[in-house]
Amino acid sequence: xxxxxxxxxxxxxxxxxxxxxxxxxxxxxxxxxxxxxxxxxxxxxxxxxxxxxxxxxxxxxxxxxxxxxxxxxxxxxxxxxxxxxxxxxxxxxxxxxxxxxxxxxxxxxxxxxxxxxxxxxxxxxxxxxxxxxxxxxxxxxxxxxxxxxxxxxxxxxxxxxxxxxxxxxxxxxxxxxxxxxxxxxxxxxxxxxxxxxxxxxxxxxxxxxxxxxxxxxxxxxxxxxxxxxxxxxxxxxxxxxxxxxxxxxxxxxxxxxxxxxxxxxxxxxxxxxxxxxxxxxxxxxxxxxxxxxxxxxxxxxxxxxxxxxxxxxxxxxxxxxxxxxxxxxxxxxxxxxxxxxxxxxxxxxxxxxxxxxxxxxxxxxxxxxxxxxxxxxxxxxxxxxxxxxxxxxxxxxxxxxxxxxxxxxxxxxxxxxxxxxxxxxxxxxxxxxxxxxxxxxxxxxxxxxxxxxxxxxxxxxxxxxxxxxxxxxxxxxxxxxxxxxxxxxxxxxxxxxxxxxxxxxxxxxxxxxxxxxxxxxxxxxxxxxxxxxxxxxxxxxxxxxxxxxxxxxxxxxxxxxxxxxxxxxxxxxxxxxx
Length: 578
Known about the structure:
mainly alpha; two-stranded antiparallel sheet; 19 helices; 44% helix; 5% strand
């Protein structure tokens, strides 16, 4: 038995070293002139790093992890989406971060830092490196950082605080020292050579990261957040400044979503469907963004509703109509053991997966779809929260909040923002009861608490930015989310709370970098577990769902078009009186 174990480890070492050597060798072959020693240009190196980073963060990980963690996707199959992991998946993520994304980018920094003709391009590479590490450290916690750029397999893990301190200082330096009229990337895959936009990105990312760590490192966060807020002219100022990475229409540049779910006919159990809770929060407030974000159901279910009779505000009638949009709970049709529920009352019984609504295909499943790193709408919500923290700003938190809603509506090309902002719960200083989720345990109500409003709107406005919202929820614990009621069987749990982090690759790191790995694991509260809280996370007590009293209901489906028969008539809806 021990011999077998040793053989497996030996094979794994050989496999991993081969992968790393292969990647390095291929990189050297591509960029080596047979007649002379040459150094690849920043443009050649940077474009590949960005494309691979987009594929990884905005593609694979967003689909398999982040969008479920943010409750944008519902009932999606796969171990990661069901709050577990696979060792092969973790190994792939780790290798892609350090070999495919960071190595080529680091070569720009190493090869051109001393050449004044490349000053801006080196800063651009440092900004990109800071973004990538901001994702790594907020996903895993302490990670290899200081020595990782040296290409060593065995490296120490730098602490969260060290990494955040360094990348915030790097972003500050880049934002203050980049020359708008200086050198730039001749082929810039992000801003098409606009250095001013790189400056705005550096400063906006600095503010975003400062807010992200404000719970765990308040002094560091306030220092950088206040400095960024004191120079708002150097932050994103319109939707034209949105920082988005874009795939292409050439087959080799297709988006992950298009290749996975459109070009290849995917199993219906793994296709992304809209999370019921997210859709509920759009439906409750008659949010015009719903139609821009979500596809109607291919085969709508019929619901029974009670509305005011045409021309009356007192007499009600019962009707039936087709529900145009239908969200899927995070755990699908699963419930919690011990709940005394009559399954016959569950509206989801027997519902085919294809009847649920999907993300808007021409936006989120296109060959050349975009992935947002930060938007003007999001930045306004960040500034609103920064204002509440006393970090400064030229406007009130209320005005930043409203500006964020306006920017989001403009971003998605919809109107009706004034009516929307006047609704109870959305309007600053007001509250709303909301509608109940399927089990009646959470609802879409919004309190008068300013932070509740800001975080809710940031969630609604940031669809498909799963990592950002996961981080926001870990920091604030304010979104009314349901835990995973259908966790992967390997967990051995009836339900699983939102993971606090993603685990390190347990085998590859323990073999190739055991000293660094073991030290990092020893500093985690529960070891290399999904539930070891990161320093940036707000402590909380997980919900004990088995102690709660649920009730099946259809509130999430009622009054979709309004409270009266006249609303249905105005919408041109076919309905039956019963």
